[in-house]
Structures are given as C-alpha cells and as structure tokens.
Amino acid sequence: MSGWRDEILQCFTPGVIRLTLVADPDALLLEERILESIRERGFELITFEDHVAFRYAYESKFRSRWDRGEQTDLVVILRAQASDLSSLPFDLLQAGRRLSFSLGDIFPDLSYPVVTALDRGDLDALYAAQKRHAPGHLGDNATKEFVLWHVFEIASELIKQPSDLLRVLLRRHYRSQRIPGILDQRFIQLLRQNKTFDDWPLETLVPDREAFFAFLQERWPAFLDHMAGKKESVVQEDKKPYGFAIDGPLALPFDHPDIRVYVDNLFVEGLLHSVSHEHADTLARIWVSIGVQTDQAEAKRYRLKKLIENLQSSIPAGDARHGEWLHFARGWAELKKVMSDRELPAGCEEHVTPLTELVDKRFLSWVVKRYAGLINLPATPPVMLHHVPRFLARSLLSPHYASPPVKIALLVVDGLSLDQWMVVREALEIRRPNLRWRENAIFAWIPSLTSVSRQAAFAGKPPLFFPNSLQTTNQEQALWTRFWADQGLTPQEVVYARGLGDGSLEPIEELISHPRTRVAGLVVDKVDKIMHGMELGTAGMHNQVRQWAQQPYTTELLDLLLGRGFHVFLTSDHGNIEAEGCGCPAEGAVADLRGERVRIYSDQLLRDKVKERFPAALAWEPVGLPDTCLPLIAPPRQAFVRAGERLVSHGGISVEELIVPFVRIERMDA
Predict the structure, then answer these.
(1) How far apart are CA 114 and CA 120, in angstroms?
(2) 623: number of CA atoms within 13 Å, CB side?
C-alpha cells in the first residue's frame, strides 16, 4: 500500500505499547483500508464518543484481557484535535502514547475545508495529483477546481454544449458518485459563465440524482417524437404540451455518441422507464427500442440479457470499497425483481444461477475481510443501520433556529429487501405520483436477525451495547428513547410504535399529533409476516408484497406523516432470500437462538461441535457483538431445516439479506 496511508501506518508497529491514543479529527483511521491494515498488524480500535459506552467496551473487551495477561494492542480514537486528548480519562493518559493525524498535515498546500469535505476514498487520487503536479499553495477556489479535475475528472472549461454537460452528469449520477456540496457550488458558478446553460436548472440537476433522472425521463417522450418524425416524415408540433415538472430545455441530445452509450443501461437498470408511443412499431426497429413500451417477448429477453451482462462485469473485486457493493446491490435487486416476472422467456435461470453463485462467493469473501471496518465509519452518510439515528440527529439538530422545528419519522419495514422495496415503490408511484424517493442502501447487522439488526437501528449503537436483549425486541422503545435523550430530547418529544402495516391509522395519528413530538420510530412488520408464511419463493414474496403495497395503508401512512410536517425516512432491518434446507441440527436446547439461516451459541465448543456436521457453514466471529454471541451461519442459499425443503428466510450473509434500502421520501410539491 502506498500513498497517504503510509504516513499513518508507519506509526503502528505491533508489540511496542499496548495502548495508543489518537487525535483523529478527520476520521482517517476509520477509512476502510487503513482500518484493514491496522487490524492486520494486530491492533484493535475503539472510538471514544460516549463516556459510559466507551468504559463498558474498554473494561469488558480490553482491560479484562490485559488483567489476564493477554497481549493486545489497542488504539483509542478521539474525533478531535490533538489538544483535546487531555480530556480522555486519566488512566488512559497515564498508560498510553499519543498520536495525531489530520488532513492538514497530509495536504498542507490545499484548502483544508475543501479537502475535509471529500469522501476518504477520494484521497488516493488527490494525493497522487498533489505529488505529480506539486501545485503549490492553493486557495479555496483553486483547490476546488484542482479537486474537480484531478479527482472527479470535471473541467468546466471543457463543457461548452449540452452533450458535454449531460456526459458529465450521467457519469456522476449513474455511478452514484458523491461530490461535496462546496464543489458543486463552484462547478455551477463556473457553468453559469456559459450562456448556453441559462435555461438549465443547474442548482437542481447537478447535486440531485433523483431530479436529474426525472429530468431525463420527462424529456424522453419529446426525443421519441423527434425520432419518430425523422423516421416517419411526420410534422411534429414545436410546442407540444409535455407537462414538465422540472424546468429546462425541451430537447436533449440522447443520440449524441457520448450520451447514447448510457441510454441502454439507464433503461435496463430501471433508472429510466420505457414509455408508450403512437409510433412504437417504427421506434421498436431502431436503437431507442429499449425505451419504448412493447409487448414483445424479445424486448424482455434483451433487457434481461443486458442486465445479466452488466452485473457480470461489475461484481466488486476483493479490495472494493463498501460503496461499490451498495451500488452493485441496486442492479442486483433490479435483476431479482425482473426474475419474478412470470412471463419471462424460458431458460433464464441457466444464466442467473452461475451468476448468483459467483456473487455469493465474492460477497462473502469481501464481508469476511472488510465488514468489521464498517462499524466505526462516520454516520454521514450512514453505512450501517446503527448509524441511522446519528445521521437523523444531525438532520434534526443542525437547524437550531428552524421554525417550525424539524420533525423526523423513521419507518423500519421489518424484512423488506432491496428488490422488494422496488416492488413497493412501483406500487406507491401509481397511487402517489407526487412523491419522490431519494434512494440509498446501507448494511444490516450480522447475523441479519430482527432482534440484532432492528434493535441496532433504534439504539444507534452496535449490539455489543445491548447484550441482554439480543433475543427479544422488547427493549427497542427504551433504546430509542435513550438515544434521543442523549441528544437532548425529552421523552415527551420521542414516540415509538410497532406492529404496523394494516388496520386503522388512528392510533398513529393520535401518537404523532402531540405538539411536542419531534421524533417518531415506527415498525411496519407486514412484510416480515408475509415472509414467514411464504411457500412460493421469491416470486411469491414479490406478488404478495405488491398486493400489500397496493392497499391504501402505506400511502395513507405517508400522507399522514408528510402532512404533519415530518421528514420521512424508510429502511429495513434485514432482507431475505429463498433457501433450500441442508438439514436441521439435532441440538436440543444447546443453541441460544435457533434461526433458519443462523444458529447462535454462547459457547465456542458447542458451536464447533455443530459445525462438524455442517462443514460448509460459517462460524462468524462476534464483530460488534458480545463475546457470548457466536453465530453459525448456514451455507449460501441454504437453511437449517429439513433437507430439500424450500423457504424464504433471513439471518445469513448474502447481498439480499445484508444490503437494505435507506430512502428519504418527499413530496415534489412540498
């Protein structure tokens, strides 16, 4: 490993001193590859954020081991300046050496506010550019332009016409590239110097992925009219009323070579949707056919073929960052949704089965290597479920003088996988076309069980900190209330309810109507109930989830929350997969928790004994879990039930179970 990480890693030699205190205001030690390298050298890391939580983890996992004479190298990370290290407990200061790292030290010639806004994964390109070009001392604007070009390959002076701008925006939004707002502002400022873009809503299209694709979707019918006119020699009215919701130019150069290369993938992956057209027969014979609704089986076959090809070529490598898997999961979910279509051409499974085996193998290998590094990542944006409350707290508490005060609702749809969210979204779009979905994905906890993962989502902490309730969800309300109490909210400002998904909304309306309510945590468990009674596999899940989403309950719940001024976020505690039985361990009462995709033991010897019968099962080390929580995870696509039995379940490690939706839901007219 070379580059900026070397400047940090050279300070970590194992066996020198067992306790190291690090001032890390920029979260450099929490970057994935840094974390991996430090762990490989035998160090364990813990962040100091909450005195009580830190003391619990420190005493139970480290101090007790030192007292037993065990050798461990511990790094305590304080997200503050070096001068603040003295605020750490006295016993740590007496025993530990002190280090400090910051982006200002690594990039001394670049503007610190600009560099610190970057995702840590972008620092490699910036460090290489700094070494190669030696730009000298740069101010804010010069640093922004240096970063835009050398990190994101954006040079405003090369953007002279609409096709140039579309190419840049497509590359960015198709990859879900995260660019800091301060860079977007500078980019827009430079673009505004070109009169060509006077009628473009740049302030919306540049930073807002969903708005950009909605902008393209609205203009696609106009482009089809243009193409039909060329093919049919028909006269098109210049001022045909298309009813755009997003301002901007009517005509976009979809047929420009730099833009056309994206068009197939946009429709194949569901980012754009095909539309009906009066000249569909003619358009279906040219390259735009993917974006025209037809009843042809050939169109479905072509889309599935392209989707499989795209996924085969984009499976993240072993050293991938977590964002690559989150991006891949969206395409994978689209494939799962398409595969549930009963009218798909025959023979599809023979292509999907080997791809599934490869994805399972790659993902499991990556999880074993990198999952532990996700837990302590900064919560903005959230990467794991326990990051969500901290992310919401920042949204709630940032505008200190907001009037009226910000209100937040977190909907946890128990058991909703990413592909099933897409099914729900399609149903909701029909009933409420004025809703906008800001879609992201995050990681659930391993094991992907409700009592582990959902509690973490409400506690805002890893399961390590609620060891006594890992077999129940009865402490969720207390954990949710306690988290917000730590943020300064009173119990009267925080509400919680579960068991939602059908029936009357009156109890929820009464719950959130109190004028002091600021935060609502709501559990919708209908999908989980559907899953545990499912006998028709993934296709059956999609069908029943769709039927549920078409009922009034969900749309009326969203209407209620949005109408009462809540910022609404939706997530899930875990997904699910269709699995086949590999046999049921005859363990009696040995297992503390007997799930279908995972068994949990409190004793290593007991787990090892069961694993002897299931050598392909994974003995998962308790990452972020109490030491007495020892999961044995069933082999890929298998479950601990009678051999040959098929069911839909969760608890294990797969893309579908572990990567779940995290969506902000807004009204477009709000």
Answers:
(1) 12
(2) 20
Q: Which two tokens stand for residue 537?
A: 């596999």
Beta strands in 129-277 (DSSP E): none
Model confidence, pTM: 0.90
CATH topology of domain 4-106: Rossmann fold (3.40.50)
Nearest partner of 385 among 460, 497, 449, 323, judged by Cα = 460
- Report pLDDT digits (tens) over 264-304: 999 999 899 999 998 888 888 899 999 998 876 777 788 88
Say yes or no to pLDDT of 235 above 60. Answer: no
Peptide bond into 404 cis (omega under 30): yes
* φ and ψ at residue 95, rounded to 5 degrees: -95, -20
Q: Which two tokens stand for residue 101?
A: 């790292």
Task: Classify 372 as helix, strand or coil.
Answer: helix
Contact 254, 260 (CB under 8 A): yes
Pull the structure tokens for residue 219: 């203009």
pLDDT band at 1 (very low <50, low <70, confident <90, very high): very low
Neighbours of 295 (CB within 10 A): 8
| Whether the predicted pLDDT of 401 surpasses 70 | no
CATH architecture of 375-576+657-667: 3-Layer(aba) Sandwich (3.40)
DSSP single-letter state for residue 365: H
Q: How far apart are the first and last CA of the chain?
A: 48
Strands 630-633 and 577-581 come out as: unpaired
Contact in structure between 186 and 152 (CB atoms under 8 Å): no
Q: Quote the pLDDT of residue 133.
A: 92
**Lowest-confidence region among 78-92, 191-205, 478-492, 643-657:** 78-92
| Of 627, 660, 597, 626, nearest in space to 457 by CA | 660
pLDDT score for 376: 85
Torsional sign, CA 164, 170, 173, 176: negative
3-state secondary structure 312-364: HHHCCCCCCCHHHHHHHHHHHHHHHHHHCCCCCCCCCHHHHHHHHHHHHHHHH
Q: What are the structure tokens assigned to 213, written together?
A: 């694709």
Joined together, the tokens standing for residue 387 give 């990051």
Render pLDDT for 450-480 as a digit per residue (tens, 0 to 9).
Answer: 999 999 999 999 999 898 888 889 999 999 9
Position 418 scores a pLDDT of 97
User: In this structure, are residues 273 and 217 in contact, taking their beta carbons and an 8 Å threshold?
Assistant: yes
Cβ–Cβ under 8 Å, residues 440 and 381: yes
CA distance 30 to 35: 6
For 629-639, give one letter per residue: b (16+ CB within 10 A) or e. bbbbbbbbbbb
